[in-house]
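Anyone? Bumping this.
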Amino acid sequence: RKEVEQDPGPFNVPEGATVAFNCTYSNSASQSFFWYRQDCRKEPKLLMSVYSSGNEDGRFTAQLNRASQYISLLIRDSKLSDSATYLCVVRADSWGKLQFGAGTQVVVTP
Amino acid sequence: SAVISQKPSRDICQRGTSLTIQCQVDSQVTMMFWYRQQPGQSLTLIATANQGSEATYESGFVIDKFPISRPNLTFSTLTVSNMSPEDSSIYLCSVSWGTGELFFGEGSRLTVL
């Protein structure tokens, strides 16, 4: 079983719609959680950290469910520029290495 | 954040040869890492580049195949030795100041014929 699993998609989303997807992790001791964004043929870039209480950054909302061991990302009012692969990243402890999911592809269409 | 420059950005190499990828950061960083991303796959950590000492390799990666140098706090190299087509991948340098956030270079796209 992979340590971090994501639905690869693609999620085809009409412009202006809302899309949400999850990521599950296997290590219950995981401490830190992140969403990274990777555009086609580009390097990954941090989108947002995921806090226990959940957090929102503009149109993006991230949630953590420790009991079920998953994190989620919701994108509201999707823009064409939101088309990308979203990588779920999990770290076991303060010094543990980051585990990357394979990514969820989102395609926003006009 | 930091400006992370990797070169070459891409290369096409013959099997059996070696390629050295350079990573230059515009400020001193605590931690430097080398990742590999094969097509359609997640990022896989190859090793942590330690300043002034041998790199720390992850399971499945060895120094003879992927020698790494880090002579100072702003520069590192990764060599892919005795290449085979299976080594075709994107190799990414990344840095961290220990906060958990990683910053990546633009990657080096390697194709081995």
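Late reply, but here is one note on the structure posted above: Chain A is about 0% helix and 55% strand.
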